[in-house]
């Protein structure tokens, strides 16, 4: 995991944002905010988790399977690039 | 929101568990655990968010739309019960 | 189900579009198109199913639970309108 | 696409099942079945699409990126196997 310092910092920033969103939902429940507002907070937390997941999978492909920008085998590099596109489409 | 003390306690327990899962992902990233392990932690956090969402929507239906166990209109009560089943199916 | 003629026509148009998308995926597999292209067809079929689901749930709420535009109880009407917004957010 | 005759046959069987499910939803709408029943048909069609997607992505990884059962580089083979596990977890 955490393949470059920059990637690690980005992933940590994402997960800390999700923790902050969970804390906001907790405060909203304690303050008995409206259901609709709480559900919108939870929906945005779910979106953030999808974004984190897509980035983790992309980093995994690049560092532990095939890096599309560096692999000497052009077919394999293209296959990995397509795979990253698919992951982004499904988790956006 | 938070329609009965018991429901509020259950929702708070769910969201605190999600916050704890976010903290576990953060520690796993800092400790540079394997990608596969981190992705499994994130997948279980996503499952917990789906569970929280389903419970919030169900509580919203019961308290702000139609309570299937108490509505005097039998058709409407059945419609609300079916709706709760559908929400559970889609978010399980 | 199928609460007004207009709604029924819209739902049928959506499901026929999904059937057409399944047929396009079938032809693409038979013609041995690239994986990336086939996965994009499948992703758009999944989006169409989410749209159909959201419309079915919205129609169900309007006709079998509470119609937010016609219910005499203002709180319940607002609760149903919020619920429809949530369903759209989660399935868009 | 369609990397072996056996895989192609399995994918075609999956997509034909999805087309059949779309036809069943169409008939159910025309016959004005209950909303709850129609939504359950649509939910099972969505499950079938997730299964097709997972299989397409897995076949893509095996044939166009890295085959975990045949790659001479053990680290890369393990990375690809973990990736396939993650895809199955997210799309099951």
Automatic annotation (TrEMBL), chains A, B, C, D:
Please give the superkingdom of this protein's source: Bacteria
Q: Which family does it belong to?
A: Belongs to the FrmR/RcnR family.
Query: Top-down, what is the taxonomic lineage of the species of origin?
Result: Bacteria, Pseudomonadati, Pseudomonadota, Alphaproteobacteria, Hyphomicrobiales
The UniProt entry, under InterPro entries, shows: Metal_Tscrpt_repr, Metal_Tscrpt_repr_sf
Q: What is this protein called?
A: DNA-binding FrmR family transcriptional regulator
Q: Which UniProt keywords apply?
A: DNA-binding
- GO molecular function: any one? DNA binding
Q: Which organism is it from?
A: Methylobacterium persicinum
